Amino acid sequence: MTANESFGSAPPERSSREAKALSRRRFLSVSALAGGGLLLGARFTRSSAHASTAAGAVDAEAALNAYIRITPDNVVTIIAQNPEIGQGVKTMLPMLIAEELDVSWDAVRVEQGDLDTDLYRGQFAGGSMATPMHYNSMRQMGAAGRAMLVAAAAERFGVPASELTTADGVVHHTESGRSATYGELATSAAALEAPSPRDVQLKDPKDFKIIGTSKPGVDNRAIVTGKPLYGIDVTVEGMKYAVFQKCPVFGGRVASADLDSVRRLAGVTHAFVVEGGANPLEGLQSGVAIVADSWWQAEQARRQLQVEWDEGPTAAQSSATFAAQAEALSKQAPQRSLRADGDVEAALSGAAKVIEAAYSYPFLAHASLEPMNCTAHFSNGKLELWAPTQTPQGARKECADLLGISESDVTLHLTRMGGGFGRRLYNDPVQEAARIAKEVPFPVKLLWTREDDMRHDLYRPAGFHYLKGGVDADGNVVAWRDHFVSFGEGANFSSSAAMTPVEFPQGFIGSFALDASLMPLGVPTGALRAPTSNAIAFVIQSFLDELAHAAGKDPLELRLELLDRAIAAGTRTQMDAKRMRGVLASVGERAGWGRTELPEGTGMGVAFHFSHRGYFAEVVKASVTQRGRVTVDQIWVVGDVGSQIINPVNAINQVQGAALDGLGEALHQEITYEAGRTKESNFHNFKLLDISEAPPVDVHFLITDNQPTGLGEPALPPVPPALCNAIFQVTGKRVRSLPLSQHDLSWG
Amino acid sequence: MEFSFTLNGKTATVDVQADMPLLWVLRDVLDMKGTKYGCGATLCGACTVHVDGEARRSCRLAISEVAGAEITTVEGLSPDGSHPVQVAWQEIDVPQCGYCQAGQIMTVSALLAENPDPSDGQIDLAMSRNLCRCATYARIRQAVHRAAELATTPGSGAVTSGAAGDVGGRD
Q1: Are A392 and A83 in contact (CB under 8 A)?
Q2: A418/B98 touch (CB, cutoff 8 Å), yes or no
Q3: Burial zone of A335 (CB within 10 Å; 0-12 exposed, 13-18 middle, 19+ buried)
Q4: What are φ and ψ of residue A609, in 5° steps?
Q5: pLDDT level of residue B155 (50, 70, 90 thresholds)
Q6: A294 and B37: CB-CB below 8 Å?
Q7: What is the DSSP string of A146-187?
Q8: pTM of the model
């Protein structure tokens, strides 16, 4: 298995790596492809084989391009360019390169790349985008490296390249029986002109040796032996520790603070007020920074800190006021129409049965287990960051702007992250660290407490849906209207609070209307794993279930009929009805839907959702005691993410985790506000799913002739509605708001 | 104040405030980053270590309470990552983000030292206060069984909650 270094730890190691990096003269050509996306052509003008490191030792590695270095004894180092938040990208992207380079995975060492926008494109973690963005480009980088090694061998053997083959890091000339290892060829190969990635031949998938085989995470050994890997683990020589106290009310500002008392406390070196930025809800906020010799001392000092806050205009808002406003808005004409197909009013009045229902879902926190943190060193006008961020490029720009320096004066080292889930798309903690570092003459590590993390999140916004649907005498769904009451100002939805007007069932029901009304929000909101989808799938797939029951149809049958009608009609929407039908029929089969005798108190629910280019249908089997206690017995997931599962062992882990994440949200999670403050503070009142609640999750992928797409997110959204649909089957109680913990589900 | 204890088989002495939690002594004074901070309130289990062989939360455990104790952290579970639980965790590919796993591993290794072949129910009971935000729970169960199997296979490492020195004695 691969060995991996931890990084951002000891300065000598870092400086030698930097020296190595600097010793190479690197160029990158980037060309835009006609179909969008970027084609990377990274090359080095010469090998770094003779460059010296800072330590004076000969650096014998030859660099073929920005991703591949090879030593004479055939050790292949592959750079993982994207931030690792637990999605497995640090293993997956190098697998793509190694496959086409044609090396043995056991010979590969993986190294995390720093942020480098000259060398790399798309260094971010979000939107389940790594696979669709990089599936071809990373393979091209590997194939380009292989082509250079083959060309070097052709020159050495004096034979045409077309007569050469490769396997496991060796070039062979069958006719003459000659061969050379990549290590032997690397120096001369690196001196060659790199081919255009466009011109390199990619393998036929049937010849894959690495892609499609299970490779455990490249950091596993470091994880199980406790090596420093994460942002919170960064140690920089001479660094001190910081905490940052913000106003408990969002957008509140420091009016005055008793800094002198804090400065006298043990270990404290600095205490100062930081002015917030222009946006009262995002980026750098007003607060008090305390810097000390140890984090514990800084945190102890904070507990003594006396601050008077100017709480600002949102101090009166609460979850209750939001709910009341939503209720009031639902009774008025919608502020605007987002989509109107057919004539919904006519279809409703002509329907045999009309169902009306109000659905809602709560605000949610991300609650990554590693709390927000960042280490920063500002010296001589230059900023160095060790940042657990999903968006390093944004972090660099924001910090450069904040400190009034150029982006080229910011170095950003990527660290592994103890979860992201979307929280680390936002770089407020990085900005805080940079701002604090500017005030002190040493490196500083900022660490939030769990309470900071939960109370200063950018939350998954709550939402309210007022639905009306109709079925005709034959049990067909003929009308669907959703008055979506959400948050925003004017016509602008708050971050992550919008839904697309072409979301299913748009296009599948002749008369469809989506209206919206917005109310102002003084809470920071943002993307949470499977943003929007994690909320609206619950609404759409639950209400669809209500209509199925109204129509007297099996919920799975009604869904298949809807899809079949669209397939027959050739309906084109963002969602390919055929692919969804495939996963839906398959999950019904696997779960034994309609064929399984369920004991009293046990039910099955089904739901599907298309998001992040992925097609997922899921069945939840759940039991509810007569007193209302819910146990989830099993979840079946069938997904279609295209023609290739790159790393099956991780793909299954991701899907199981996403499904159970959805389960935890549905069962337990809710963030509430009182007097402008987040009420929940830690895992006792914002519960994560625990092992005793985790059912088996059966995962199956349909392999279809489509481009491979991502897996971090799309398995999550169907779980909450499938669970609620199962609960309805047992109890006859329709759950129209989450989490389940607030409902009395007793029956019988 | 000075406090001495045995850490992974070696004597450690630190000069810190008496109420400083063991977690922060390990991480920031002794620069051992394997033990993680997750909640600071004994709710998540990321900071689990062994104190005299027992799995304990180090985030609320004052250094003064462990003076003289034998403490084992994930770094000291084995000299080379060969503890059956560490081996099983890699083999089954348990981690996603991996942040909680040191705590999971410390709780499991203490469990197996007491109960060499736990059932799923016993695993759930012992592990229900070690939270995994990525929800790798199915693999945790699977890896506990695998570790139990490895521990009883001749030639593989014996399960012990002791320090590295003890584990080193296996063969």
Answers
A1: yes
A2: yes
A3: middle
A4: -160, 140
A5: low
A6: no
A7: HHHHHHHHHHHHTS-GGGEEEETTEEEETTTTEEEEHHHHHH
A8: 0.92
The alpha-helical segments, DSSP class H, found in A469-627 are 533-551, 555-569, 577-591
Say how many C-beta atoms besides its own lie within 10 A of residue A138's C-beta.
27
Please answer yes or no on whether A85 and B97 come within 8 Å at the CB atom: yes
Q: Which residues of chain A have pLDDT under 50?
A: 1-59
pLDDT average, residue stretch B134-143: 98
Does A460 contact chain B (CB < 8 Å)?
Answer: no
pLDDT for the residue A197: 85
DSSP classification of residue A691: G
CA A664 → CA A528, A695, B133, distances in Å? Answer: 14, 11, 10
**β pairing state of B54-57 and B48-51:** antiparallel
- Which residue from B minimizes the CA distance to A694? B137
The predicted-structure confidence for A222-271, as pLDDT tens digits, reads as follows 999 999 999 999 999 999 999 999 999 999 999 999 999 999 999 999 99
CB-CB under 8 Å, A230 with B39:
no
Beta bridge partners of A241: A292, A445
Burial class (CB in 10 A: 0-12, 13-18, 19+), B73: buried
Per-residue model confidence (pLDDT) at position A9: 30
Q: Do A226 and B93 touch (CB under 8 A)?
A: no
Any CB–CB contact under 8 A between A692 and chain B?
yes
Mutation target vs A (from B20, B59, B130, B133; most A CBs, 10 A cutoff)? B133
**pLDDT at position B154, please?**
60
